Amino acid sequence: ISISTSATISFVHGTSDVVFDDTYQAYKVFMRNWRNDSGDYGSLNMRFYQTGSDGTGTATEHTSANYYYGCRFQHGSPGSSVNYGGHGATSFKLEGDVGTINTTATSNSNGEITIASTDEHRNMYYYIGSNMNQHGYASGIYSGGFLENAYQIGGIKLWPNSGSFAGNGEAYLYGLAKS
Fold first, then answer.
1. Range 131-160 average pLDDT
2. DSSP string of 112-176?
3. According to the model, what pLDDT value does residue 35 have?
4. Is the pLDDT of residue 78 over 50?
5. Which pick of 13, 102, 173, 177 has the fewest CB atoms within 10 Å?
6. 95 near 42, Cβ under 8 Å?
7. Has residue 84 got a pLDDT over 90?
């Protein structure tokens, strides 16, 4: 999927050849060369789509307050770090709002999301990302969390806190199966 001037990007089961069902035990999403056009630092959010909740198997966006996560943001300026989390939130925050990024085309972010379901009906994720702020400091971000949910994951939606995605970024989804 191309990440350029879009308010959101989504991978939803049954659209554009996306398979997001029990065919795979885990999923990987790689995002490269993306940025936010408003200059909010990081500011990347995610929600799951679920299938089966309406009895038809149709993927619907899960918006209830069942998201739990924790995140750490660290950049190269000595002693500069931020921790944040959500308990009963309506989405995951993969990257936080800490200052401003350099919004030029050379200051893009890269990240990797891993998604897996557990036997306890929790859809879990972790995210690792990096970018550069307006002072040229390299930044590292990692977060993880789960959605308390009894439904099969049917996809994901990603969006910045404000503005739209910008640049010439790309996102790739891979399904991982046991051999």
1. 80
2. EEEEEE-TTSEEEEEEEEEEEBTT--EEEEEEEEEEE-SSEEEEEEEEESSS-EESSEEEEEEEE
3. 77
4. yes
5. 177
6. yes
7. no
pTM equals: 0.84
Q: Are 113 and 28 in contact (CB under 8 A)?
A: yes
Could you give the angle at the alpha carbon of 170 between the alpha carbons of 166 and 174, nearest 5°?
145
Listed in sequence order, the residues at least 6 apart from 74 whose beta carbon sits closer than 8 Å to its beta carbon are: 80, 81, 139, 140, 141
d(CA 20, CA 71): 25
Q: b vs e for 60-88, b when ≥16 Cβ sit within 10 Å of the residue's Cβ? A: bebeeebbbbebebbbeeeeeebeeebee
- The pLDDT tens digits of the residues spanning 11-35 come to 988 788 888 877 888 899 999 888 7
Amino acid type, 28: K
Higher-confidence position of 112 and 162: 112
34, 58 in Cβ contact below 8 A? no
Distance CA 9, CA 18 (A): 13
Radius of gyration from C-alpha coordinates of the chain: 16
